[in-house]
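Now for a chain:

_____
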Amino acid sequence: MLDVRRLRLLRELARRGTIAGVAEALSYTPSAVSQQLSALERQAGVRLLERTGRSVTLTPAALRLVEHADTVLAVLEQAAAELATARTELTGTLRIGAFPSAMHAILSPALVALSREHPGLELSVIELDPAGAPAALHAQSLDIALVQEYDYVPRTPETGLDTEEFLTETVYLAAPDPSPLPAHRNSTWIAGTPGTLCHIMTQRVCQATGFTPRIRHHADDFDTVLTLVAANQGVAFIPELGLQNVPSSIHLTPLPTRRRTHLAYRRGTADHPVIAAARAALHSAAKDLHKAASTSH
């Protein structure tokens, strides 16, 4: 019988590419990961890893085994979810990952509702870029997370995770004047840290308009970005959730570009009472936010 914990290590190796990466994500030592993977090879009776110096690659047999591992782990998650429905009270830890602009507008009211309705839950919130959420879910350092995509930066499907639609936002051009986007081909731009979705989106939207943005400032907090725009340090793209504190000197131009947020969780956990409660609270907070926005308009 193959060891499930070792299958999980193999799956993480397929995703992260290095034994050191697996060890860091799952709080193992690299030598412990290597030992467990060698034991899995002995159990399987076939070679799973090709070792060349310090690098390793998965054999075709290992890749097939990873596909089975996704299925096995999802079934185990589902079994645990079904057992949890027999409990009369929700207890344990719920770890939620969210991006900064969702923290105040959505996550705060959702946490208040969860604490009130399920006082036995121990809530843990982690702020992170959506690009890092899938890996954190697989590593079980998160239970549910908000992940994103933009029209020009589609999300890469992740095996072993389920997602559901959550929120769609308009993206705005924030500038000192109402000039349309093409007029800013020679402007200075403000974008997120290189590698983040916001940074990639800024580049691709501008390139689709016919120019490459000249990015001078990098900031991930939208309040900081708006402060820089108000100080005439550049122009920027801001999604709706980032427009909580807009200086009066800034002009906002709605664009056809959209940011779409999904809820993500490990496959098999959707109906776990804790995850179901989190999903309900988050959807309720998003619905209330939409109602408030509609009323203000």
Observations:
- The first strand starts at residue 49 and ends at 52.
- The mean pLDDT is 91.
